[in-house]
Amino acid sequence: MDSKNVVAFQVVTFCICLAVANSVEFSYPAVFNFGDSNSDTGELAAGMGFLVVPPYGKNYFKTPSGRFCDGRLIVDFLMDAMKLPFLNAYMDSVGLPNFQHGCNFAAAGSTILPATATSISPFGFGVQVFQFLRFRALALQFLQVSGKKFDQYVPTEDYFEKGLYMFDIGQNDLAGAFYSKTLDQILASIPTILLEFETGIKKLYDSGARNFWIHNTGPLGCLPQIVAKFGTNPSKLDELGCVSSLNQAATAFNIQLQSFCSKFKGQYPDANVTHVDIFTIKSNLIANYSKYDVEFLISYCDMPLESCDEPHAAATSVLLILLTIVF
Question: Largest alpha-carbon pair distance within the chain?
């Protein structure tokens, strides 16, 4: 993606975030984020001990920032909308990270289901929840022992209770499964995936979380690496050039996720649950890309990064072929 298209995408994303933010009460003292590469601000790189290299970060940070993105992620724009600093990754200890206004547990490649020996990320949703519980326990312990000495570095108990808990995860459970499973098998696995998600959400609720901001998954069949792998047969593509079966799985997942959100609100009336329809937002961007001054719709480069030309190079690398990223 060239710089013109990146800027257009980021402006549109910023406007979307502001529109959503203005539609609900959007003033929180802290944010605790869980997810995958769509909202990873450095977790996988720090946790696995590797460097993210250019062109990542070139369009905003001017240097790789741990994000698998040329610029900012949706979570960054949301933090801006709340006038809060960008979230530091839980595992990142370099650069004097400050967690007063929250912490990011999202790691690229993560799934809702527990990681396996072949998983890209060992930080599945359950692990991220346990990381949060440890983070919360230690933060409150430091504050209890040292009084106000640490309150400028970690959230207070009040911040944990009044904070926003954000989730953008599940796409890797579906997209990754297509490499080894049929559509029917993946559709049958969705209740199990969401049961794992429900278990994690309830653990957070039991720890005091009350404000939940839950993204559904996007049109996975439109991801460039998915089109490159599964879209060689034109009969498998929809009118936008996306892989129909993956979008069918994403739609089924989203329907059941929305049902869970409704059920959860019914079970816990004191919980505030905001369900964000990312699928519709991204589908609109893809279907109407020319309105946003984007010059091409779905492009990919399956060569080494240095071999790709500039429009592709800014949005691709070996990891992009492996990881499902925000587009």
Answer: 64
Spatial neighbors of 93 by CB under 8 A, at least 6 apart, are 46
Element (H, E) at 165: strand 164-168
Among residues 22, 16, 128, the alpha carbon closest in space to that of 73 is found at 16
Q: Which residues contact 25 (CB under 8 A, 6 or more apart)?
A: none
pTM for the structure as a whole: 0.87
- Plot region of 170 (φ>0 → left; ψ -120 to 50 → alpha; else → beta): left
- What does R_g of the chain's alpha carbons equal in angstroms? 19
Alpha helices in 164-243, H assignment, sequence order: 171-177, 183-206, 224-230
CA distances from 252 to 146, 194, 323 (A): 49, 12, 22
Contact 31, 82 (CB under 8 A): yes
Burial 143-173 (b: 16+ CB within 10 A, else e): beeeeeebeeebbbeebbebbbbbbbbbbbb
Instruction: Tell me how far apart the alpha carbons of residues 193 and 176 are, in angstroms, rounded to a whole number.
Output: 13
Question: What is the side-by-side strand order in the sheet with 31-35?
Answer: 102-104, 31-35, 164-168, 211-215, 272-276
Domain boundaries, the chain: 31-324
Tokens of 67: 């994000």
Q: 24 is written with which tokens?
A: 């609900």
> Residue 182 belongs to what H/E stretch?
none
Q: Pairing state of beta strands 164-168 and 31-35?
A: parallel
Q: Are 112 and 169 in contact (CB under 8 A)?
A: yes
SS3 81: helix
Q: Which fold has domain 31-324?
A: Rossmann fold (3.40.50)
Q: What are the mean pLDDT values of the chain's consecutive 10-residue runs (327 residues total)?
A: 45 49 71 97 96 90 92 94 95 90 98 96 98 97 83 93 98 96 98 98 98 97 92 93 97 98 97 96 88 71 43 30 30
Q: Are 115 and 123 in contact (CB under 8 A)?
A: yes
